[in-house]
Design a protein that fits this description.
This protein is α/β, with parallel strands linked by helices. It has helices spanning about 25-30, 95, 115-120, 125-135, 155-165, and strands spanning about 5, 20-25, 35-40, 45, 70-75, 85, 100-105, 125, 140-145, 170-175, 185-190, 200-210. Helix 4 runs parallel beside helix 5 (about 155-165).
Length: about 210
């Protein structure tokens, strides 16, 4: 029987970009409902190319079949703050990877969610690894930090995102629980909200471990 692992951060009111307020209450209105105010890149989310001015493809226009498929999980733990992740960190996966597969990088960084270091000290993707992803035709690149690049360095942030977007790589950020996956290869599914003209959207991401 297949095993499903949830790779999604919970959306908690009060965290950066998340505000959840009651709209109706069971006791007074007969039902419960809430108002969700969400930054388009909060929690586990997917970026659209227009996020960094590449083309005109918005999140709702990305073909749905591109959000699922086989993926490799590269466990680069332990890795320190602010480290640039390079192709050499992928180990044997680099030689086994096939065009059209996805790459998920396990850093354990999701354990710092809610702390300042989660955003300010994140390990990030090097330009060399971003270019490797393009050359290998990676379908989705998934990372645990909230960004693939230094969120406090607009030049690096722009460069890395644009390399990936121009190369057709879908960027998934804010993954969680990658360390709970026991296999190196899984089926990965990450479905974003279909927001019209969206530059990105929160997503539910899962890994499916198939039986041997």
């Amino acid at each position: 029987m297949s095993r499903i692992i949830d790779l999604t951060l919970p959306l908690v009111s009060g965290e950066k970009g998340i505000d959840i307020k009651p709209a109706r209450r069971l006791e007074t209105d007969g039902w419960n409902a809430t108002i969700l105010s969400l930054y388009s890149h909060c929690g586990t989310h997917i970026d659209a190319p227009v996020h960094f001015g590449v083309g005109s493809e918005t999140i709702g226009r990305i073909a749905i079949e591109n959000f699922t498929g086989p993926a490799w999980i590269a466990d680069v733990r332990p890795i320190g703050p602010r480290v640039l992740i390079e192709p050499r960190h992928l180990g044997t996966i680099a030689n086994q990877f096939k065009s059209g597969e996805s790459l998920l990088i396990c850093t354990g960084w999701s354990e710092f969610y809610g702390q300042e270091k989660y955003r300010d000290e994140l390990p990030r993707i090097s330009a060399e690894l971003a270019q490797w992803c393009v050359e290998k035709k990676v379908r989705m690149l998934g990372v645990e930090p909230p960004s693939v690049a230094d969120a406090n360095n607009i030049e690096e942030l722009t460069t890395i995102h644009q390399i990936l977007f121009k190369g057709g790589v879908i960027v998934v950020e804010g993954l969680a629980n990658l360390g709970s996956v026991s296999k190196a290869q899984v089926t990965f599914i990450a479905l974003p909200l279909k927001i019209a003209n969206g530059d990105g959207a929160p997503a539910r991401a899962i890994a499916i471990e198939d039986d041997d």
